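Progress note, project year one: complex with guanosine-5'-diphosphate.
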Amino acid sequence: MPTALITGITGQDGLYLAELLLAKGYEVHGVIRGQNNPRRELVERLVPDVRLHNGDLTDLSSLMRALRDSEPDEVYNLGAVSFVAYSWENAFVTSDVTGLGVLNILEAVRLHAGDDPGRIRFYQASSSEMFGKVQQVPQSEGTLLWPRSPYGVSKVYGHYMTINYRESYGMHASSGILFNHESPRRGEEFVTRKVSKAVAKIKLGMQDEIVMGNLDARRDWGFAGDYVEAMWRMLQQPEGDDYVISTGETHSIEELLTVAFTHVGITDWRSHVRQDPRFMRPAEVDLLIGDATKARTKLGWEPKVAFEELVTMMVDADVAALEAGW
Ligand code: GDP
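Model obtained:
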């Protein structure tokens, strides 16, 4: 049975990917960062069969050790400082982890693989934030990148470094340009989860309003559970390549609010929403919409969960969790 090593195991995608690979019979290892990481308990509860290794993307020798101790056939680099708004305030940390961290893990994999650099397959979690000030609608693998945040710039670095290692060393390295993907496990700093949780609280009478930023921004939102399947499929191809993963639909924050509030029976939602410049960004990515034709034709991948189903799934999960007192 194959073995996989995942960085970012404590995040939304790491957890879904670990579940997928375990179900396929993989031996799954994860790199976990920091002393007393509060999310360790979550990983141990949700995916108890995953073997954890202490390590950090900024620490090359810890990555070398994790590779030595797990001997993976596949490495998925999902670890990153991933919140766009935070990346302006912490541009150096974001560049270190989200950018240079990719070089560290690529270098660790290359050194560990020795004479046969293609023997360990590598996945890099690239991002639609790389398109930023979009130069083409919809965005595909060939669209010029124009990142609009330190996070986006760091992801561009990781993306090109992945391509460079593929071209320079013949590594089986793939870059998945994933558009926003959400789930009930999404962090509460992201807009979908912020809305689903607040709407659940408003429905249960635990809160009265939600304070938001720009309501006109648009995103192409998919379900994280569908997107980790695409990651795995990329590494089953004969060669590494780059793929856009998206639904091809775009929705505004206003539509997100409408679907979430309507689902709990509130139609005049505007009285519950206040806008505050605190949640506005120095530069905005206005219109993200992906063209996943290549993934559809080469990987046979397509998203299963559509926007409304995704939003209502998240609201229902938050209502259930709050009712259960979690
Ligand atoms: P991102 O695409 O990785 O930045 O994902 P987010 O979920 O953090 O943000 C998606 C979009 O929602 C951005 O265009 C934000 O400007 C917009 N937005 C509007 N209000 C909020 C808010 O209160 N919180 C967050 N996180 N985003 C908001």
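The mean pLDDT is 97.
The domain at 3-181+222-245 is CATH 3.40.50.720 (Rossmann fold).
No further modelling is planned for this target in the current period.
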